[in-house]
Amino acid sequence: MMKKKILASAVATTFVAGMLASGSAHAVRMSENGSGQVLLGAQYLARAADYTTTRIRVVNPSLTDAVKARLSLRSKKHSDECFDTVLYLTPGDVAYLDLRLSAAGKPEVWTDDDSILASRSSDGSLKFASQVPGGVTFPINESVVLKTEPTADSCAQGHIEVVGAYSAAGVISGLASGLPNVTVRQTMSKFEVIRIFDTPKGSLNIAGNNVTNNPAIGTGPADHAARVQLSGFVETIKSDDRIATPMSALRDGINPLTAGAVTYVIGNPLLDPTVGNEVKMGQNFGSLTGGTLNLTGTIDTINDIEAGIASSNLRGFYENNGGRGLSMEVTFPTKYRHQLVKDASGKMTYGAPFHNYGEIGYATSLFDNQENSAPATVSEICVVSPCPIATISGSFLIHEVNYNVVTGATNWNPSSGWYSTNLSGVAGAPRYDIGVLGTAYAGIPTIGYTHYFYTNTGTISRSIVEPLNRNNNVGQN
User: In the record, which residues are listed under signal peptide (predicted)?
Assistant: First the structure.
């Protein structure tokens, strides 16, 4: 059925950012314990009313390793990079930042955390966010979304990526400009840890330095996977409700499809992201022994990553009585890797498994508690502006970030049960945005969750989030 906007619904006042269940057809897969080298957050929001703040937290649980990670926010429809920052995580450290709207109604990031650099002066002096009275605010320039569809995208809503580049432990030497050695330890100064992470990773890869994936001391991707174990948490906050979920984590693994060999999320010993230089998921992540050589001569692990989060069916429980209701959030966090070219009208076109304009077909059925079933009603929720009406006929999820209310039809609306959503895309091998033709995999690369809520006189409260159940693929580990 056609998706429609709900303009004056109590449900339209809410959303949640979240996680997904584990499951993979390839070795790279969702982490069972919520920790890994890459974190994916299904949704963030900067909104003026009700749920006004999205807080993102990233934890480095290691008490021996400092970790350099890059956090980025990508827009709702085409995953344009709206904001990025480097997280300087000391052992046992947590970094946090808030997404919100400014007084002028523009999306912004606020933080007073000492893991985030506030400024870097031309004379080399540094200031962390914790050193700025009242914290530091970073405006988000929404003009970045103009490169795709200026009337259809927004940086006020989107999804989150965190890439754990590498970690360091012990005494680190060979720092830039001949600076003194640094000993990594808990409660170390952030001015010390930034001396390590400002030095190019290639320069740190020398004998004696205990940095992950260091060829000079014979370590590789397994070392990185074992020591970079980030976890993340996202909260959507209002005065009387908090909707909170862990971020999804990607990890390495072995399964029958890899003939007993481990594949890794990140294997490149020189991966060293910096602020302002876009990092696309999977691009330059691979080592010489893992990934696919792309047309630029670098190693790409996107095909393995996507197979690790692919599913063709999503499920959750259902309640619709006494003020209870639910919404289904579905995000395609790697869809932007399938961007091809603009068509004659200026719309971005996509490659398999996505349809021409990036849409994915869906069909949702509702089951009661006695095994009876019928099609459900699925309605798109517009939570930030602009909210264009879909011009694609049929039942399709058209954005990277999709938030939909699930209800029964007029003649089929049980009080409780479960729902099932089948996803369908274009068959064939995906052709990625950098020109790599990947191996076909089953399903659609997807993350998401079910948001259960209670409404009373138009106010949402008592929120609970459940990861979407997913179909198992052959070879899952």
Answer: 1-27
